């Protein structure tokens, strides 16, 4: 993979994190050499705490000893720094870039909390509410895909772009929750465009090397659920 001269690139992350997957997919698409430093589940290394002292969270991209935090910011940074390598992730048109950023924020603000809310829900009622919120969010994203993709296979058009990375990094977890709960989040009847998009996205060699196996995510999700249930209630 092509890099930026002799620059040193490291990524702090964890294999199961969809936020880390965003950064890994972007780096791979842009053909950037990098060292992946795995953080252990439930712990924070000294390098992580030093690199992201504000949020103390992964992912953190370290480029020539300079840390960049927050997954969406990292993806944009990668696209801007390695301009001549791999496909452009952000659209060339300013309005299109604004649309991609808007929907990426929507994914993080609305869809992701409802998706993982199904795992954290303390009651079946709360779980059902999170499910409905997730389905409603996907319906809006289905409509957005129809407009933004303009009949092409990805949000980015003919190639995977910024918004594809933003949402696609969560496909593995969507499949895991589908298997655990016995229902479809991406449904051929209700979200046919996103169903086709998810298949195209996961069939990409770069993506397939990053998205974890469904069975492994299910196993991890059960461990996390047990931790949530055993945790003391919030005050």
Automatic annotation (TrEMBL):
One of its GO terms (molecular function) is glutathione transferase activity. Residues 93-224 form the GST C-terminal domain. This is glutathione transferase. GO terms for cellular component: cytoplasm. InterPro entries: Glutathione-S-Trfase_C-like (IPR010987), Glutathione-S-Trfase_C_sf (IPR036282), Glutathione_S-Trfase (IPR040079), Glutathione_S-Trfase_N (IPR004045), GST_C (IPR004046), GST_C_Tau (IPR045074), Omega/Tau-like (IPR045073), Thioredoxin-like_sf (IPR036249). Keywords: Transferase. It is an enzyme of class 2 (transferase).
């Amino acid at each position: 993979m092509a890099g930026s001269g002799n620059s040193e690139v490291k990524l702090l992350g964890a294999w199961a994190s969809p936020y880390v997957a965003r950064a890994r997919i972007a780096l791979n698409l842009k053909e950037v050499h990098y060292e992946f430093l795995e953080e252990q589940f439930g712990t924070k290394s000294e390098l992580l705490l030093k690199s992201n002292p504000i949020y103390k969270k992964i992912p953190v991209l370290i480029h020539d000893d300079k840390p960049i935090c927050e997954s969406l910011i990292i993806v944009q940074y990668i696209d801007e720094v390695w301009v001549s390598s791999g496909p452009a992730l952000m659209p060339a048109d300013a309005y299109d870039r604004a649309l991609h950023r808007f929907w990426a924020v929507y994914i993080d603000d609305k869809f992701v909390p409802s998706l993982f809310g199904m795992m954290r829900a303390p009651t079946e009622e709360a779980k059902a509410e999170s499910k409905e919120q997730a389905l409603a969010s996907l319906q809006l994203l289905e409509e957005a895909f129809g407009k933004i993709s303009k009949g092409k296979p990805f949000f980015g058009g003919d190639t995977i772009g910024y918004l594809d990375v933003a949402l696609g990094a969560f496909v593995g977890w969507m499949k895991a929750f589908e298997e655990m709960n016995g229902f479809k989040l991406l449904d051929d009847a209700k979200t046919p465009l996103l169903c086709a998009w998810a298949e195209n996205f996961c069939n990409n060699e770069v993506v397939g090397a990053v998205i974890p196996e469904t069975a492994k995510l299910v196993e991890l999700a059960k461990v996390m659920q047990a931790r949530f249930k055993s945790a003391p209630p919030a005050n």
